[in-house]
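User: structure tokens for this one?
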Amino acid sequence: MNLRPKTTLLALVCFALLGAAGLVELQLPQAAAGGRPAGADDATQAEIARAMSAGPDDIARSARIVDTDSNGKPVVLRDGSNGFTCMPGNRDVIGEPAMCVDAASLQWFADAKAHKLRPTNTVPGITYMLAGATQRSDSDPNDTTSPAIHVGPHWMIMWPFDPKTTGLPTTHRDRGAYIMWAGSPYAHLHVMGRP
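Assistant:
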């Protein structure tokens, strides 16, 4: 069991967004030549593999990989070239799955973690969680007490979806698609399985 300290996804998202927007110059340790991070060990390689397991191979292969170090600081384990960021998450924390996200999804998650009234991404975001996930609720984005729900491989479109206009269901299912957190500004489309 990996018990090293992790920051919340918010810290990763904020650093990634600020850096991507050019608002801060991120002074993060970078990957060494040849793709292997400086001082990498087997645990680091396992985190890279876990982060990559969240996305389709063709996306994960060229995505930026971001994790946190033992002090909770964001660390770029590998630079990317396709606009996606993959993170290993923390398998010991409910709601911190491995994921691969585009810039619009980074904004969506930052807004959700900051409890903004609604997400501010201006285009739909794509999030992959192909290694599966755990979550607390399909109906309440702020639930912190319900037992864990285990979710198989899935991907999401981070954009407002309304069950009345789409006809899509709002309850958890193991196959097909449904709207998670329906009725909230953070409603989004869950698509079970691999794209």
